[in-house]
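Encode chain A's predicted structure.
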Amino acid sequence: MSVMLIILAAAALSMGISHWLRLPQIPFLVLSGIGLSALGLMADSTLFQDALLLGLAFLVFSAGTEMNPSRMRTQQTAAIRVGMVQFAAFILIGLVFGWLLGFDWLTALYIALGLAASSTLVVIRLLKQRQQLFEPFGRLVVGVLLLQDALIILAIAALSGIEGGITAVLVNVNGALGLMLLAYISLRWVTPWLLLQVDLDEEEKLLVALAVLFLFIGAASLIGVPLVIGAFLAGVALSAFPVSGILHGQLASLADFFMALFFVALGALLTLPTWRELLLAALLAAMVLLLTPLLVNLIARRAGTPMRAALESGFLLAQTSEFSLVVALLGVQQGHLSAELLSVLALTTVLTMIATPLLAADQVTIRLLHWLARRQRWDVPTLPDEYALLLGCGERGRPLLAWLLAQGKTVVVVDDDTAVLSQITQPGVIPIYGDAANPNVLQAVGADRAGVIISTLKRLANSEALLRYAATVPVLITIFDPQTAVRIEQSGGKVVLESYAAVDELMDWLAKEGRTEFQA
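Encoded structure for chain A:
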């Protein structure tokens, strides 16, 4: 109990300092764990390893509630291609890297699996913070994560039985497949009935969700696979709409608590690395951060994904997974991996998790798009006297463009994705390359004299700047967040709430339930 109190106190102090300094929480949590270990306050390694696994189990459970397979349906082909190529490429890279360093094939396989999957925990949090979970590229990324998690789960199950020979490996893999089937059955029929049809209050619904978690963990224990696999699949079993929406508010505070517990315990688990281990972790992290965006962008573009969405997807997926730690811990427990390599893989995971929010920032994507656009010339032509201005013509802008053309309008389209602009060949459209959030671009395309402006800009500050510049022009702005919509209306803009993704899921659910009285 005293060890748990020390962990919680260190977590509270670290989060307070990070909030005061306005810096990311993860490095402070990990450093506090390292400090506790260095001070000798974490002598009972069994307890803090249990704390690590407990925190990780709840975190992957919480992340699993976001992993509804139906969300990837519109991006299924691209998600499968990107997920398989990224996973296979890093398996190969990890095996070659381990061989070059002189490790045996089994150790090299653990390194390879530690690099192969991206973090569901980090990516889902970023997509939710940016309100991009339901955007097309958000669906693509979720599909990639779900596929990779399924592959890594099967790999972990196989490794957990490797000491027992091929028979034990097959038994564990079949057991993991059985858990996946149980999660699918629960997702489709069991949990929606429990949480929607049975008359339960909020506390009872949370207890049902936790009961599902313990059921899957118990099943994983019975099969003999790591408990984290059961925890993640329990989350997937609860990911159906609108079940997941009912639980998110109740799980959010618990997820923050277990995140703090997890990263402090992770820091305490690490031994102080040598210079060689630091160099190795930095090299592995650099490979993930550099190669993942390149691979994802290449495959996503070949699958028909726009340039900007492909870049954003690559940057978001550029980190190793929480399941990497499960792989590393399993390797140590079975004597296949040294404590030093555990520290290297854990440091790689922490470094890439910290770097991802910085790498996936809008400014990085915009600068890269501008650099790529220099290879192609986009002049601003002489504009007609009357025209509609469409700012952004990605997945959300294309239906708007078709509607404007159907009204007989001449449309000036501004987008910072040259791939999107190259696909616009309809008569009556003038495509112009540029960042629609840049005041110089707005001036160049005559935003203050357009007949009407329709904007798909995501940031509130950009929309407010547009409204100030084009104060005399009718401006229609598509927005997902109702609170942002209020701010824009107060600034003089007209708003369309862009909630089609949620509506799609709602209508599907109503159709499955047979509630046709709600359907238009």
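The longest helix spans residues 165-197.
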